[in-house]
Design brief:
Helices cover 69% and strands 0% of the residues. The protein has 2 domains: 1-52, Arc Repressor Mutant, subunit A; 59-208, Tetracycline Repressor, domain 2, CATH 1.10.357. It is globular, with a radius of gyration of 21 Å. It has 11 helices and no strands. The protein has 223 residues and is mainly α. Helix 4 (54-82) packs antiparallel against helix 5. The protein has helices spanning 11-26, 33-40, 45-51, 54-82, 89-103, 110-119, 128-150, 156-175, 177-180, 186-190, 192-208. 22% of the residues are buried.
């Protein structure tokens, strides 16, 4: 696939741009070096010259995307830390959890990026260390500090486990949202994100042991 651009790009930039599109569309194994170089209008040796191989090209692209997500999450937590009047635990959880669902609508390829991140968290990971060092660890550490500022009496280890549980719930609801549609009514599916965020927030408040628990959403009539 030959790709032409009105604005000439240097080879390295072109390789990053077109490799990212191909990786998002087809995954790491589904893309060959030849496909990348053809799309970028470069020769096959260019990938080795600029990145020392396909894996390092993939690493650079994924690292940049992970850094973007992490920066957004850290900025949100900083905003919550500085909010006046101070945000309570329920507000913190709601905003943090909602931000992951908002990520789905951030750009057309957000869903594909999340699928790649999921894969890099499993046994078939190609560069799984990146998800740990560039995403999971910095977000976990900062989120823990935010929670402990809001609830200084919480046990640190307990709060840390609760954060892992919260992230696990979020990932489950996002990744399984198409399957979950089949067990819910059309009306429930229309408000899926709102209901999921509320459920995870309230469930997590109880798990953390906070007194800040609302009565929950209005009961629905059985059909």
């Amino acid at each position: 696939m030959k790709t032409h651009s009105k604005q000439p790009k240097d080879t390295r930039t072109a390789l990053l741009e077109y490799a990212e599109k191909l990786f998002l569309a087809h995954g790491f194994e589904g893309v060959s070096i030849r496909q990348i170089t053809d799309a970028a209008g470069a020769n096959v040796a260019a990938v080795n010259y600029h990145f020392n191989g396909k894996i390092n090209l993939y690493r650079e692209i994924l690292a940049q995307r992970l850094d973007e997500i992490t920066c957004e999450k850290l900025a949100l937590l900083k905003e919550l830390d500085e909010q006046q009047p101070a945000a309570d635990l329920e507000q913190i959880l709601d905003a943090f959890i909602r931000s992951y669902f908002d990520l789905l609508t951030a750009s057309p390829d957000s869903d594909r990026l999340l699928q790649i991140i999921y894969r890099e968290m499993g046994p078939d990971a190609v560069v799984g260390d990146l998800v740990a060092t560039r995403l999971a660890i910095p977000i976990h550490q900062t989120f823990l500090k935010t929670i402990l500022r809001a609830c200084p009496d919480l046990d640190k280890d307990h709060a840390s486990y609760c954060i892992s549980s919260i992230i696990g719930q979020v990932l489950h609801f996002i990744r399984s949202r198409e399957i979950l549609k089949d067990i819910r009514s059309p009306d429930q599916n229309q408000t899926f994100v709102k209901n999921a965020v509320h459920h995870i927030t309230q469930f997590s408040l109880r798990g953390i042991g906070s007194p800040c628990v609302t009565s929950g959403p209005p009961a629905r009539k059985r059909e």
